Amino acid sequence: MSNVTPPPPSREPRPSHPQPPNAPLYGEPTYPQPPVPGYGDPGYPQMPGSVYGSPVHPGSPSLSPYAAPGMLQPVGLRPLRGIGAATRWLILASGVVTLLAAAVELWGISLLGGLASGRTGFESLQMYDSVTLLLSGVTGLAMIGAGVCWMIWQHRAASSVPPAALRRSPGWHVGSWFIPVVALWFPFQNVKDIVRGSQAPVGSGLLRGWWALWIASSLTYVASSNMMNAADSVPELSAALNVSIAGDVLWIAASALAWMLVARTTDAIDPSDR
Q1: pLDDT (tens digit, 0 to 9) for every residue of the chain, 274 residues total?
Q2: Which of 37, 90, 97, 164 could form a disulfide with 146 if both were Cys (CB 3.0 to 4.6 A apart)?
Q3: Which alpha helices (H) appear in 70-203, and where do they start and end?
Q4: Sequence-distant (≥ 6) Cβ neighbours of residue 62 within 8 angstroms
């Protein structure tokens, strides 16, 4: 019996998986990838509420309808219609009370003229003093109420317009009224920024006229008060009352322009159909 060594088993090559053409190194598969949409493409996610026909990038704040192109809307819109209405009503009330005060001051001038000629008794003067005291209290309350509402309204309006339109923060819009010297022009600049940022239909004539009348009436009241305190004769008292009446007229005119300013700016920032 011969020792015959069997032939080794044949080893056929193992079938390999088909590789796609142009396969990268390290065995990474390549498959057709869908095109990734870019910014502005139809498949790119859009945010609702864009204006001016331009897409809004996700995560960015939308533009306000009242803001100029390129100016971002602030974080939150503060409601203005309620405080705006209260401000207008108190401005109107202060104007009406000031008109009554002017009429009483005219009565006082007449009484002083009658006192010099002996036609006016002290009872009439005492009645005049009582009416003046009562009317001064009512006028002061109306002006203080209008001033407080104005501060709240201005702070909310400044918080609702684009920050890029403001030179100062909403806090400075209130604080600038109480700082001497700068109160002569800072509040005017602040209100002008609100009007510009809200694109309210307020012309420069209305804005400048309101501020000029406000400053003129304030200075006239200061002059009248100083004249009244220094008066020691009937003609000097009459002159002080005449100056006070002039201040009343200026205040009433300033109140009318302030009423229009608040109304138009409020409608621009917080329209009734919003």
Answers
A1: 555 566 665 555 555 555 555 555 555 555 566 665 555 555 545 444 433 333 433 333 333 444 444 444 444 556 899 999 999 999 999 999 999 999 999 999 998 888 777 777 778 888 999 999 999 999 999 999 999 999 999 999 999 999 999 999 999 999 999 999 999 999 999 999 999 999 999 999 999 999 999 999 999 999 999 999 999 888 999 999 999 999 999 999 999 999 999 999 999 998 875 5
A2: 90
A3: 81-117, 122-160, 170-175, 186-198
A4: 47, 48, 49, 50, 51, 56, 73
| Residue written as token pair 């002996």 | 118
> In this structure, are residues 136 and 94 in contact, taking their beta carbons and an 8 Å threshold?
no
Kindly report the three-state secondary structure assignment for every residue of 209-239: HHHHHHHHHHHHHHHHHHHHHHCCCHHHHHH
Q: Are 74 and 269 in contact (CB under 8 A)?
A: no
Token pair listed for 25: 């190194």
Q: What's the whole-model pTM score?
A: 0.70
Tokens of 179: 């700082």
CA atoms of 274 and 269, how far apart (whole Å): 10
For the chain, the maximum distance between any two Cα atoms, rounded to a whole number of angstroms, is 171
Task: Give the integer Cα–Cα distance in Å for 132 and 105.
Answer: 8
Residue type, 16: S
| Residue boundaries of the structural domains of the chain | 81-269
Using CA atoms, how far apart are residues 176 and 160, in angstroms rounded to an integer?
19
DSSP string, 28-63: ----PPPPPP-TTSTTS---TT--TT----TTSPPP
Amino acid at residue number 177: W
**Tokens (6 digits) for 205:** 């004539």
Q: Measured between alpha carbons, how far apart are the two ends of the chain, in Å?
A: 111
